[in-house]
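Run log, item B.
One chain of 308 residues. Sequence copied directly from the ordering sheet:
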Amino acid sequence: MLILPVNVPRFVEKAYARGSDAIQLDLEDSVRWEDKGTARELVRHALAICAKGGADVIVRINKPYELAMKDLAASVWPGVAAIHFPKAETAREIEWLDAAISELESSRRLPPGSVKLSVAVETALGLHNALGISLASPRITDIVLGPEDYALDIGVEPSVDGRELFYGKAKIVVDARLAGIQPLGTVGSVANYGDLETWEASARFARQMGYLGAYCIHPNQVAILNRHFSPSEAEARAAEAILVAYEAARREGRGAVGVDGKMIDVPVAARARRTLDRVDAIRAREGRTRAAFERLGETPPEGAIIYL
């Protein structure tokens, strides 16, 4: 997911060609207080511009109630896939947000429940309540731990490797799994976009922890996320081999089998199936991307298509 300020036209106009599966139009931290009203007026047009490459388009709103209501009114239109709510701290906030979106869907004749919710927890209180927050609305598809504000709230300086975030990042994975939603994020800060080597290591470690994707703030970070959060061709082939061997063993009345010196049993086979399901989902997404760029008469950007 590529995050960009909605009030910078050159970012908005080029976003569709950056290779990201999702584009987040920001009304929050990257927009100055005095510019927020003008920025809201740009959202509806920006939705169409950013979506033309096949990406889902999300809008990040502000937390204070008065700003959030104005942001929602500017954002809940055809073409918005989700609203991203920052700094969530309680389930009650999510319930209120769900109700507000429902009213806008109804008044604007959008299908009920079509606008999803993405949630960020960015304080110690938000992290403590993350499971309740994750369960507070059926609209929620994912949850993230915002590293910069979280580090500020717990009184630490962000490090290069993000070790001070480890507890919070691990808790988000568990809470997201319990709620049946996706944990998103890397292990470390997203701010140092010039250090791509550290960014790559952070993405690799996040996937190993159980994260399913992440967000970034610079186009150069996109291809790295696409690559590291997609099973490789070798991983896909290994998963296929595991399932073939496991199913053959089951037909012979056995519950486990050895493949390349490793025991394959129920959880190993389940992980292999999950890998192939993820490959199928990514292929479907890439199919939509190819179709969108064909309609534009353009070639998808490098790094946007993993499975050729």
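Observations after the first pass:
- The chain has two domains: 2-228, 233-296.
- The mean pLDDT is 94.
Flagged for discussion on Thursday.
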